[in-house]
From TrEMBL:
Keyword Kinase (UniProt): yes
GO biological process: isopentenyl diphosphate biosynthetic process, methylerythritol 4-phosphate pathway; terpenoid biosynthetic process
Protein's gene: ispE
Function statement: Catalyzes the phosphorylation of the position 2 hydroxy group of 4-diphosphocytidyl-2C-methyl-D-erythritol.
Top class in the EC scheme: transferase
HAMAP family tied to this protein: IspE
Name this polypeptide is given: 4-diphosphocytidyl-2-C-methyl-D-erythritol kinase
Keyword tRNA-binding attributed: no
Length: 292
């Protein structure tokens, strides 16, 4: 190994997120329709004398590169499970292009990218279910981020069902650069036992069909997050009024809000308008990554 290897960590978006129960161990059961946008952090790996991590990029400031970072935890978990798959030590650089604590997968997406990257470097394919098991031990969002394709996530996030079809759609993402701590949002959640998602249409191929289904869903974490950061509601309402917007909603535990569009042109126009209205906020427009 003499070259650099690169893997992307796409932004995770919860199009719908129902909190379906609270387990005795304190974790919550969820039911979520998840997609990924073609805007991402990047992981680079270089041959080195030891496994180590550096962090760069517009949102890298303040992140620690010590052993507690999910990237290095993913490296350690991979090596513990498959000690001979990648014998060379690696220096990783995380280019942090996505806001931190933003409801976009964050460290989970980065950890999943490391697992994919290391799996690709070995001489043989690794069983997907074993990779998923390692991902689940790292965090609830890591299995869905390992897939990084449209999916339904259930349980605490470890039960991931890939969708065979999904409409060609585009998203606008906007974040007010206010970090939101997931645990704080859950503490404000009033009802912990809600119904799960309705059955998905099969096949799911048209934006209008998706919009009709999404109208029967919600993000149960949106009300408590808006109570903490009211501008989330203002961003959602602004995006909802944009021409061509199928749905505007908060992703995950926030504070990122997404708008779902059937047209790239309309998505980019909505992003342009948001940048003009809120010039200090992070805004991106990107296609939704399609099923393989």
């Amino acid at each position: 190994m003499t070259e650099a290897f690169v893997e992307t960590a796409p932004a995770k978006i919860n199009l719908a997120l129902h909190i379906a129960g609270r387990r005795p161990d304190g974790y919550h059961e969820l039911d979520s329709l998840v997609v990924f946008a073609d805007v991402a952090d990047e992981i680079e790996a270089f041959p080195a004398n030891e496994d180590k991590l550096s962090i760069s990029g517009p949102f890298g400031t303040g992140l620690t590169s010590g052993e507690g970072n999910l990237v290095l935890r993913a490296v350690a978990a991979f090596r513990a499970t498959w000690p001979d798959h990648v014998p060379a030590r690696l220096a990783f650089n995380l280019r942090k292009n996505l806001p931190v604590a933003a409801g976009l997968g964050g460290g989970s997406a980065d950890a999943a990218a490391v697992l994919r990257l290391m799996a690709s470097l070995g001489p043989a394919l690794l069983p997907e279910h074993e990779l998923m098991a390692v991902a689940a031990r790292l965090g609830a969002d890591v299995p869905m981020c390992l897939l990084s394709r449209p999916c339904r996530a259930q349980g605490v996030g470890e039960r991931v069902t890939a969708l065979s079809s999904f409409p060609q759609t585009h998203v606008v993402l906007v974040n007010p650069l206010v970090p939101v701590v997931t645990a704080d949002v859950f503490r404000r959640l009033q009802v912990h036992e809600n119904d799960g998602l309705p059955d998905l249409p099969e096949p799911l191929t048209r934006p209008a069909q998706l919009g009709i289904w999404l109208a029967e869903t919600r993000n149960d974490l949106e009300p408590p997050a808006i109570a903490m950061v009211p501008v989330i509601g203002a961003l959602r309402d602004t995006l909802a009024r944009a021409p061509g917007c199928v749905l505007a909603r908060m992703s995950g535990s926030g504070a990122t809000v997404f708008g779902l569009f059937g047209s790239s042109t309309q998505a980019h126009q909505a992003a342009h308008d948001l940048r003009e209205r809120w010039p200090g906020y992070w805004v991106a427009a990107a296609p939704v990554i399609q099923p393989d």
